[in-house]
Amino acid sequence: MKYWRFCVVLLILGTCALEAGAQAPSSNLYVFPLFVDGSVPGAALFRSVLRITSTTTTDAVNCTLSQRNTSASMAGASGYQYITSVVTGDFSPLSVTTIKQPIGLSTEIVRTSGLPPLKTGYAELSCPAPANTSVQYAYYDGSGNKLGEATVEPATKGNSFQFLIDRRDGTRLGFALANDSAIQGQFRVIARDQFNQVVDFNITDTVQPWSQISRFVDEELSHLPANFVGTVEIVGVPGSQSYAVGLQFTGAVFTTVQPLVRDTPLPF
């Protein structure tokens, strides 16, 4: 079992920014800053599994999933194949999937196939009525045996995203930051120790409009001590609509990490 199998999503994302399109604001819009589908031939396979539950037992699931860059096909819990349509053909294609439960049930579990070449992006789920939803990232070996999985709830919009970080035992923290706006600019990565003193920072990297970018913290902060314990704050582009999620890797184990979200960044 190779460590890179568990890190390949972030490593691939680290080479470029992925464009993503905005949608009109909605009280029932759920944003997932990382969405993944595909395989590394003969080595690993990745799926995103989307769970949707209507908050009332009478409303059937009837939602729209918008993906950027992945364009993944989706299969329901019964095997029903939902049609994914590519809407634009630009650098990071927009695709749309209508998830209407075929027999009117109030729950549905859809998952990507994991068969095409590995792609990553981010996704937005829009529903006419409130829903409970989450995305599970699952990875398999080259033979199709599941090796691990982690679940993330919809992200909260904010300007500042603060993660606890503990690098002891070789732990690495990664993050995905989505800029769901027409504003281009620089984002900030700031590490502080347990006494809230700045240890390292990077304020020079840029996020493009309607884009998603992912990095390991140690790629952004080259002077971070190997055994560092403290916090890392990700600050989005000023005036943008930003969302973030963390992924923590320790050897062959990974989990998702939710940040503390603020409207106003910490003093710097």
Q: From the alpha carbons, calculate the radius of gyration and give it in angstroms.
A: 18 Å
What is the terminal-to-terminal distance? 41 Å
Mean pLDDT: 87
Tell me the name of the CATH class of the largest domain.
Mainly Beta
Task: Describe this entry's structure for a reader.
With 268 residues, the protein is mostly beta strands. It folds into 2 domains: 3-152, Sandwich (Jelly Rolls); 160-262, Hypothetical Protein Tm1070, Chain: A (Sandwich), CATH 2.60.290. The chain contains 2 helices and 23 strands. Strands 2, 3, 4, 5, 6, 7, 8, 9, 10, 11 and 12 form an 11-stranded antiparallel beta sheet that branches. Strands 1-19-14-21-22 form a 5-stranded antiparallel beta sheet. A 5-stranded antiparallel beta sheet has the order 17-16-20-13-23, with no helix packed on it. Strand 21 (242-250) and strand 22 form a beta hairpin. The model is unreliable at 1-7 and 9-25 (pLDDT under 50).
